[in-house]
Amino acid sequence: QVQLVESGGGLVQPGGSLRLSCAASGSIFSINVMGWYRQAAGKQRELVATVTSGGTRNYAGSVLGRFTISRDNAKNTVTLQMNRLKPEDTAVYYCNAVVVSGLEYRYWGQGTQVTVSS
């Protein structure tokens, strides 16, 4: 019922910045939580940051102080501003949405590649 489309990934040098965006569409009236996860090659998918419809934010310790998650509830979009990028940030980044309507539903985007390399 919800489609998520990510954009903004690419190649950046260490210390640089990227901004990822995710747009949600579909028949769901309200999305409770939106966020970003990432999966590096050969590793498990991990949480990067989430934001609730009320504006509560949560960050992984590895990105605290460097990444900022923002959300526009009216547009159903979420943005991840990534600053001072490190090679270890290299991963496929996935947009995530959680919809609670009696039951909890989770949706995922297709992923966008972020590569941090000199």
Question: What do you see in this structure?
Answer:
By secondary structure, the chain is an all-beta fold. It is built from no helices and 11 strands. It has strands at residues 2-7, 10-12, 18-26, 33-39, 46-52, 57-59, 67-72, 77-82, 91-101, 103-108, 112-116. Strands 2, 4, 5, 6, 9, 10 and 11 form a 7-stranded mixed sheet that branches. A 4-stranded antiparallel sheet has the order 1-3-8-7, with no helix packed on it. A hairpin with a 4-residue loop joins β7 and β8. The termini are far apart. The relative contact order is 0.33.
Instruction: Provide the low-confidence segments as ranges.
Output: none
- What portion of residues is helical? under 10%
On the 0 to 100 scale, the average pLDDT is 94
What portion of the residues fall into strands of 2 or more residues?
over 45%
Helix-and-strand structural type: mainly beta
Order of helices and strands: EEEEEEEEEEE
End-to-end Cα distance, whole Å, is 40 Å
**Total beta strands:** 11
Radius of gyration: 14 Å
How does the major sheet shape up?
Answer: 7 strands, mixed
What is the helix tally? 0
The dominant shape is: elongated
